[in-house]
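Translate sequence into C-alpha cells.
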Amino acid sequence: MAALHWQKSSYSPEANGCVHLAAAEDGTVKLVESDDPDVILTTTPEKLHAFILGVKAGEFDRFTV
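Result follows.
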C-alpha cells in the first residue's frame, strides 16, 4: 500500500480540529480528523460529494446544539 498524501483546506487554521483528506489508490477517499489521527474513515468520492452538498444545503443543521 502506497503512503497517503494528506491534504487540508487552506482555510483551516494551524490549530487542531482539522479534517484531512487523501485519495487512495483504490479510488476511495480517506478522511482523518487531526485530534484523533488513528481513526481513518473511508468513503467514495460520490458519497463525499453528496455529503458536502447536504452540508451546504443545511440538511444537517438540525443536529447542531
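Note: The chain has a mean pLDDT of 89.
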